[in-house]
# Entry
Amino acid sequence: MNSNYGINELRTADELNEKFTAPLLTWLSSNGYEIFWHPIKMTPMFTHRYVLEELPNFNILPGHVVHHRDKNKLNNRLANLDVMTKDAHDDIHLKGAPNRLFRKKQT
Ligand SMILES: [Zn+2]
# Structure
């Protein structure tokens, strides 16, 4: 069973506006995200950011990042992606669990 969805799977799943005629060249960034070579724009792009930026009338605002809800960096389906500020994102990944463990009880 394949639980990862890279750019080529998304393409055939008809989830993107743009259609490519051949399988795309993909590789992983050093921090585990999929990158693909956009054959028309002639530039490498992060798949997870591309999926959102392809939405009509949608832009990822400066200072915002894309989070994978299931923590699987290769599950780039639209339903798995959230946009949030970098601070909110850091809370989820860095502070979430320890803070919950050590937070004092409210009275
Ligand atoms: Zn995240």
About this structure: The mean pLDDT is 86.
